[in-house]
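Batch job 17 of 40 flagged for manual review because the log was empty.
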Amino acid sequence: MAEQLNPDEKLQLITRNLQEVLGEEKLKQVLQERELKVYWGTATTGKPHVAYFVPMSKIADFLKAGCEVTILFADLHAFLDNMKAPWELLELRVQYYEQVIKAMLESIGVPLDKLKFVKGTDYQLSRQYTLDVYRLSSMVTEHDAKKAGAEVVKQVEHPLLSGLLYPGLQALDEEYLKVDAQFGGVDQRKIFTLAEKYLPSLGYAKRSHLMNPMVPGLTGTKMSSSEEDSKIDLLDKKEDVKKKLKKAFCEPGNIENNGLLSFVKHVLFPLHGEFSVKRDPKWGGDKVYTAFEDVEKDFAEELVHPGDLKASMEVALNKLLDPIRKKFETPELRKLANTAYPDPSKTKAAGKGAKPSAAGEEAELAPSRLDIRVGKVISVEKHPDADSLYLEKIDVGEAEPRTVVSGLVAFVSLEEMQDRSVLLLCNMKPQKMRGIESQAMVLCATIEGEPRRVEPLDPPEGSSPGDRVFVEGYETGKPDDKLNPKKKVWEKLQVDLKLSGECVAQWKDQQLMTKLGPVTCKSLKGANIS
């Protein structure tokens, strides 16, 4: 097919459905002379999920346009990103990613012989690459490195140096993989602009950058491998797919943050050129759409019901997932999946007197130990002995409201606090603050600096006082009656609490939720939670 396309047609295929392209003129110039060389990299951290079909479908477009495509399994990046992948599991994770991504590509009919697969540590530990890392480190400021990784690298209160190296390494990959362009999600934009700024300073060419939009998950926010209800795993059983789709955010007529419609647009139409909606005959029967705009229009006008969209998505998803499930039925690949992603809850308890394992320590520090609830401020006034503090009465669904002292005076007005819904940590040891005992702590998003910025976290709309807040994957754990200050449980867990690039509260990239949806804040992207 590529031989039959002219350069303009190739460019249209390469760039369709992308949110942004940096360096489009350079792409046009290359396509006039030869085929484009492009790479897509993925850090081998959490398990890939169905949103990975979005870049896979674009890779299919690249190949149809005649591009030479490299897929990078970025194992070193996975370790550098706040050790999301332990060193001892890196090789197993790479093996898993390679198997599952090849299975995805085969599922959508992409010929593997047209692709080049590379592991990061195959060249990132070489002498020349290491020297370039040092050279780049002498040019990039700490501010630029932190800014570049803000939406990709895990943000914590005390960041590791490894996370600051991450964006620079990704920039260098463009040179060492000898490509014309790098492809990724729009959340990578700041890393891409860092590469454009600094690679020429090393004597290397500035590359073009192709960016996909971020596909919403099933809860209406970004789909993440660590957010159980936001995503469908590639190996989920059919009954699990049905269950998750049934719970998916999909309001009648609402086309905003609709993960199902986004999947139809960015995966199913590019792959198949059509989408079949299953409907009861009394509502017009089945209908085959050949343009996404028609699907979106009918859904907005409520001619397609959310139930019909979910049922149709279930059929389409299972067709994509069946070949992948079948491939992973072999004992070898089942073992690989289990060893690359061991279940901490099944780790045997350490023997008497033995030091706890890393998995055991993680279980001991489960976020379910925190008693976080939705609270409603029923009265608020200035602290009688401190103008910088509020004295609040907050309903948390108990017989009596809790007395809370908070330092929000400089950030939120009295009027804004009155009747506001907030999140409270309810099982901290009560502390006296200027003579008044505070019985809980209001959780806030915080960005240090000049000026310091603080916003209280917001529970989902419609939440009631006393609604429990939990971290996805830890719904069943029981909170401590009271957190022991000497054990510093809160302090250890708090290090991994932050806001995502979409202002969604997370612990280790897993969403803080109530039964109604994710916890958010108004505007402080990437902030810490305290």
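Reviewer: the log was empty due to a logging misconfiguration, but the result itself is present. Confidence is low (pLDDT under 50) at residues 347-363. Unflagging and moving on to job 18.
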